[in-house]
Amino acid sequence: MCVIFKRIFFLNNFFKALIIAFSSDFIDKFIFFVENGTINGFTKANLLYSRISSNNLTCAYFESKYHGELREDTLHLYKLFCYKLAFVVFYQNVVQWIQKYIEQSVTDTPRHLDLKLKKEKFLIMQKLKLNASNSKSEIIVDLIQNCK
Question: Are the C-beta atoms of residues 43 and 28 closer than 8 Å to each other?
Answer without folding.
Answer: no
